Amino acid sequence: MPKPLPGELTFVAPRGAKPPRHLADLSAAERKEAIVALGEKPFRADQLSRQYFGRLAARPEEWTDIPAASRDKLAEAMLPQLMTEVRHVSCDDDTTRKTLWKLFDGVLVESVLMKYPDRVTMCISSQAGCGMNCPFCATGQAGLTRNLSTAEIVEQIAAGMRAIKAGDFGGAQPGEDGEARAVRLSNVVFMGMGEPLANYKRVIAAIHRLTDPAPAGFGLSQRGITVSTVGLVPAINKLAEEGLSVRLAVSLHAPDDELRNELVPVNTRWNVAEVLDAAWDYAAQSSRRVSIEYALIKDINDQAWRADLLGRLLKNRNAHVNLIPLNPTPGSKWTASRPEDEREFVRRLQSHGVPVTVRDTRGQEIDGACGQLAAAG
């Protein structure tokens, strides 16, 4: 009988317990200290990191460059069980897959893998639930259970990469020369469960694990990482000082404070002007265009005058508007805008010279689209 993979749960810790320390929680220097404390040579940290981040080798028996006598000890101490797959559901001809994960303490979170013709994107969670209380979002209505650890965030990515590598998701696609090319994960969006900037320290550490070259991390491009926020201004300002080139996505949803106070309650703390000022500072510091996320809700925020107001706020700014037809959630009184209102909203923004796209609503059938992640058991 094969040994369980690191990450497969054989027990569930009590609620309130801290996630066990994991390789992905640690910096390169901290890994060496931990390895030495186990009685191993410091270079074992580099070897183990290359297995985890570089080769995606999850089973100790695959670690052929590490002595057999050390493998189980290293696996137990450095790659503890954090999460296990409860189920996954697919749609869009299996190009969209939502996975429900049970964490080490029984808490549930979700992530979504999406294959496009030119890339594979993964939407990951940074919190179990969300404390922002946006009334049109299923995650927000669930409330916040807890922050995820750095490793719990990273393990979602590692699991997605392993599925792709094994051919369990995405398969292969033809290149320009007609030869089959294995798909690779290239884009990660912190748009799953939770407000990423409310778990700032662990999210920043996770970004480094995702983007630092092996053996320190997976070596993804920072330009392929998007961090979403409802507008926590001090955290946006702090992010601007990190020297990262990740994309910032601001979930605005209304251009006026009166409505945004209702749709995004944190707006009563930091209003539209303050959020956008912080976003423009981030754009200047990072040289990255800011994505303005705007869920179109029928007869709530889709009026032509609001499109004009938004256009005036964003005109001549380094920004792009991502319009999201509202994804329905159980019991919600709101729904997506009428097609003609959506088209007029787009036209009004374009008349102000503001770049705009309407987001593909992939994953809606499996409650895997924006605002639908609720991690129901």
From TrEMBL:
Binding sites annotated in the UniProt record for S-adenosyl-L-methionine: 194-195, 228, 251-253, 327
Gene3D superfamilies for the chain: 1.10.150.530, Aldolase class I
Record text on cofactor binding: Binds 1 [4Fe-4S] cluster. The cluster is coordinated with 3 cysteines and an exchangeable S-adenosyl-L-methionine.
SUPFAM superfamilies per record: Radical SAM enzymes
Function: Specifically methylates position 2 of adenine 2503 in 23S rRNA and position 2 of adenine 37 in tRNAs.
Family, similarity comment: Belongs to the radical SAM superfamily. RlmN family.
Protein's UniProt name: Probable dual-specificity RNA methyltransferase RlmN
Protein species of origin: Streptacidiphilus jiangxiensis
Gene, per the UniProt record: rlmN
